[in-house]
Design a protein that fits this description.
By secondary structure, the chain is an all-alpha fold. The chain contains 7 helices and 2 strands, in the order ααββααααα.
């Protein structure tokens, strides 16, 4: 009698363990299946998404080009350039001789900063054309202190910065329109400094020269 009870107890425990393992296995299997479906679905979406690699042809368009031309009149953000005077330094048919805004201490400080970054490597810190890359073999630019450039209208420097000149590449992308004018103002200050007299120094500042 006791043996029979023990066997039934053992069989019940075995059945319970087996059922528990089966349930756990089923749950794990279901989780793996769902995960596999999810991952496969995402991966397939990435494979099947509508796209064209650069320069791939497309039968959808008559010219079979997947890359489409810009709509006529499209202007990229920040490239509207409504103020031609500000952007080009031109006034009428020639170079402008005046600034489009007031030249103050802040503008001069900005011009010096931009000049030291973008111009000094070739033109030198004083504008004499003896920058570091020139000392290492690059073509020497003219000195800003030559009479030709001292007498050039300020718009000339704006045009050269925007479009390049001779061996100098354009800096239209690196230097914004307002910063070009700031640099031009600083160039004018450099030119003045090389030919200034004591009379050009404010009375309040003359003590610093002695």
């Amino acid at each position: 009698m006791r043996t029979e009870i023990a066997e039934r107890t053992i069989n019940a425990e075995i059945a319970e363990i087996a059922e528990s393992r089966t349930s756990a296995f089923s749950a794990i299997s279901a989780l793996i299946l769902v995960s596999a479906i999810f991952v496969t679905g995402c991966r397939q979406d990435m494979h099947d998404q509508p796209k064209f690699t650069p320069l791939r042809e497309s039968a959808f368009f008559g010219d079979v080009r997947s890359a489409r031309p810009l709509v006529a009149g499209t202007v990229a953000q920040g490239h509207l350039h409504e103020d031609a005077f500000l952007e080009t330094g031109k006034s009428g048919s020639g170079d402008a001789s005046a600034f489009p805004f007031a030249v103050d201490r802040d503008l001069m400080a900005r011009g010096r900063e931009r000049f030291d970054i973008f111009c000094a490597p070739c033109h030198g810190r004083t504008g004499a054309g003896d920058g570091m890359v020139v000392r290492r073999g690059y073509r020497r630019p003219p000195s800003y202190h030559d009479d030709r450039l001292r007498q050039a209208p300020v718009g000339h420097f704006i045009d050269v910065m925007a479009n390049g000149f001779g061996a100098m590449p354009d800096y239209a992308e690196q230097v914004g329109a307002r910063d070009r004018w700031a640099i031009a103002a600083y160039i004018r200050a450099l030119q003045l400094s090389e030919h200034a007299t004591l009379a050009d120094v404010p009375q309040s500042e003359r003590g610093a020269l002695r």
